[in-house]
């Protein structure tokens, strides 16, 4: 995992905000609450262990309101799933209700874009959305396009149930399942 930390500061009116990818700043409880918010309809809270795994393996931008005493309260997030070499998948863009409409969402997206531009052999910055408004937003802010005719590319995906039922019961599939090994000891 890339150990770099990205950070930006900005004032909006009299309020100070910070965006940081420092893992230790982002309370896991904030992410769980965000995932439980109906506004984030695609996500749901998960076990503490899975959440830690997710955050350990992502570059997550926390958006914080900074008080005059220097204390930071999380008010938003965005998550980049990236290998830091070729791909950056953007997901879980979220601001708490009372911080929307101030231009902070746009700021978060632009910071994600900067992180993607730091990926040296970037092939794509990707995201999935069903919202027409979001498509216009990402087109305007990040130059993203729907994959289609102009790229001669199709975006493909499968949710878990489709993956589970997709393998035909062939001898090859059974042999692969039977020969699966997993190791958790990297030094072994
Ligand atoms: C989407 C979201 C992050 C925008 O944050 P924000 O701080 O209100 O956004 P900004 O003030 O920076 O920018 C507002 C722009 O975002 C657009 N916008 C607002 N809500 C949006 C949404 N749900 N999807 C896409 N764009 C949205 C507005 O049209 C506005 O466009 P404008 O610049 O032409 O006026 C915020 O509304 C949010 O957290 N929504 C719930 C979670 C969500 O839907 N996330 C997915 C986003 S793709």
UniProtKB/TrEMBL annotation:
It comes from the Eukaryota. This is Acetyltransferase. It comes from Macroventuria anomochaeta. The lineage of its organism: Eukaryota, Fungi, Dikarya, Ascomycota, Pezizomycotina.
């Amino acid at each position: 995992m890339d150990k770099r930390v990205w950070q930006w500061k900005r004032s909006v009116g009299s309020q100070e905000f910070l965006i940081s990818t420092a893992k230790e700043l982002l309370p896991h409880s904030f992410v769980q609450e965000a995932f439980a918010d109906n506004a984030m309809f695609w996500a749901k809270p998960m076990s503490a262990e899975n959440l830690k795994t997710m955050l350990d393996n992502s570059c997550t931008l926390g958006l914080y309101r900074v008080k005059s005493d220097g204390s930071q309260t999380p008010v938003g997030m965005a998550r980049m799933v990236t290998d830091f070499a070729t791909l950056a998948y953007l997901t879980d863009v979220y601001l708490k209700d009372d911080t929307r409409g101030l231009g902070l969402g746009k700021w978060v997206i632009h910071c994600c874009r900067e992180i993607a531009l730091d990926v040296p052999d970037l092939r794509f910055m990707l995201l999935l959305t069903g919202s027409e408004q979001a498509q216009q937003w990402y087109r305007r802010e990040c130059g993203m396009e729907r994959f289609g005719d102009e790229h001669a590319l199709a975006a493909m995906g499968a949710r878990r149930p489709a993956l589970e039922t997709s393998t035909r019961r062939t001898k090859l599939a059974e042999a692969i399942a039977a020969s699966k090994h997993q190791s958790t000891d990297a030094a072994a």
